[in-house]
Amino acid sequence: MAAVCQVTGAVPGFGHNISHSHRRTKRRFDPNVQRKTYLVPSLGRKITINVSAKGIKVIDARGIEAVVKDMLARGVKL
C-alpha cells in the first residue's frame, strides 16, 4: 500500500538517521496511513480509502459527505 493519504495528500518525508558518531544513513518518515471503510449515503454505498490519522480527524470534523465531495472534485477515484 502506498503511504499517501487520499484526504490530506500527506506523502512520506525523507531525511537521515544520525548515529552517535554522526554517520548519516537515509531514512523515510511515513505518514500514519490506514485503510478505512465509510458509509456514504449520497453515493448509496460504502467506500474504502487510504487515510492518515490527520485525515480521520478531518472527516470527523467536516463529515464524510463534504470530504467525499472535495475528493471527487480533485478527481480521486473512489
UniProtKB/TrEMBL annotation:
Molecular-function GO term, any one: structural constituent of ribosome
Keyword Iron-sulfur among record annotations: no
GO cellular-component term (any): ribonucleoprotein complex
Pfam families: Ribosomal_L28
Native species: Microbacterium hatanonis
Top-level taxon of the source organism: Bacteria
Family: Belongs to the bacterial ribosomal protein bL28 family.
Gene: rpmB
Keyword terms, alphabetized: Ribonucleoprotein, Ribosomal protein
Biological processes, Gene Ontology terms: translation
Name the UniProt record assigns to this protein: Large ribosomal subunit protein bL28
